[in-house]
């Protein structure tokens, strides 16, 4: 006799569980890739691997004692050129970014090491270094992310991450073993901390003391994602092996 299907994860059929699980697994891998991307970009802003407060400050407020070009060559772009060539560019920046020295010594290095990615032909969303003006602009004092780039990245993250948590939260809402107040809090939690995370970029751009909010916002989003993921997978695949569940997860009012 087939088991009665109730409105919860435990009682769903194999096809629905496979659908939900496939989505959760792919999104989890995507989340890990996003963390890796942060570690290799923002996490290298201070020249050392691993995300720190200094990384966040340098990324959004800037390293006001140096230039964007210098901070990139000491950070995420450090491995893209031999030390001798990288240090030659840094010294050129420190000495005032002279145009004659650029033409004779720096431009050949950039053409060989950088233009393969930093050009329209690459299709990558990076500065165009076939345009000399872009290079000289980044040889100026580093004031961090521009308001234009913050606007672009903010709207992408707000739409994209909210869309992801919509479906993760929908699956988790069918978990019957979580108390109603806790379930409601965990479901709304990523949206609240997404707003805090995005707001912290703008606030840090204005004042570096707000960099802590970025760590808090990102960390709490990750915590809520992990909780919903683990509970959902547990109730789909482990709980049915222990005992059936006849509770209706959405009829808890």
Summary keywords:
253 residues; mainly alpha; 2 domains
What's the overall geometry? elongated
Largest sheet: none
Cα-atom Rg, whole angstroms? Answer: 24 Å
Task: Tell me the β content.
Answer: under 5%
Number of helices: 9
Domain tally: 2
The low-confidence parts are: none
Element string (H = helix, E = strand): HHHHHHHHH
Query: How many strand segments?
Result: 0
Mean pLDDT: 90
Helix content: 55-70%
User: End-to-end distance, in Å?
Assistant: 31 Å
Structural class computed from helices and strand pairing: mainly alpha
Characterise this structure.
With 253 residues, the protein is mainly α. The chain is built from nine helices and no strands. Helix 1 runs antiparallel to helix 9 and helix 2 (53-60) crosses helix 9. The longest helix has 32 residues, at 211-242. It is elongated. The two termini are 31 Å apart. The mean pLDDT is 90.
């Amino acid at each position: 006799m087939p088991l009665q299907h109730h409105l919860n994860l435990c009682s769903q059929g194999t096809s629905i569980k496979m659908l939900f699980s496939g989505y959760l697994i792919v999104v989890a891998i995507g989340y890990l890739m996003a963390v890796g991307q942060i570690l290799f970009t923002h996490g290298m802003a201070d020249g050392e691997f691993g995300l720190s407060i200094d990384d966040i400050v340098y990324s959004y407020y800037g390293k006001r004692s140096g230039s964007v070009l210098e901070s990139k060559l000491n950070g995420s772009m450090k491995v893209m050129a031999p030390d001798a060539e990288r240090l030659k560019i840094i010294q050129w920046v420190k000495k005032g970014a002279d145009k004659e020295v650029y033409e004779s010594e720096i431009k050949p290095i950039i053409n060989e090491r950088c233009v393969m990615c930093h050009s329209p032909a690459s299709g990558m969303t990076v500065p165009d270094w076939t345009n000399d003006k872009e290079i000289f602009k980044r040889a100026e004092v580093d004031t961090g992310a521009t308001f234009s780039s913050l606007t672009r990245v903010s709207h992408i993250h707000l739409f994209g991450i909210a869309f992801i948590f919509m479906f993760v939260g929908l699956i988790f809402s069918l978990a019957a073993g979580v108390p109603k107040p806790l379930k409601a809090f965990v479901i709304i939690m990523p949206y609240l901390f997404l707003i805090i995370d995005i707001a912290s970029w703008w606030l840090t751009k204005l004042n570096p003391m707000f960099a802590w909010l970025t760590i808090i916002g990102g960390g709490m989003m990750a915590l809520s994602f992990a909780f919903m993921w683990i509970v959902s997978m547990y109730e789909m695949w482990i709980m049915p092996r222990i005992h059936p569940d006849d509770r209706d997860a959405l009829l808890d009012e």
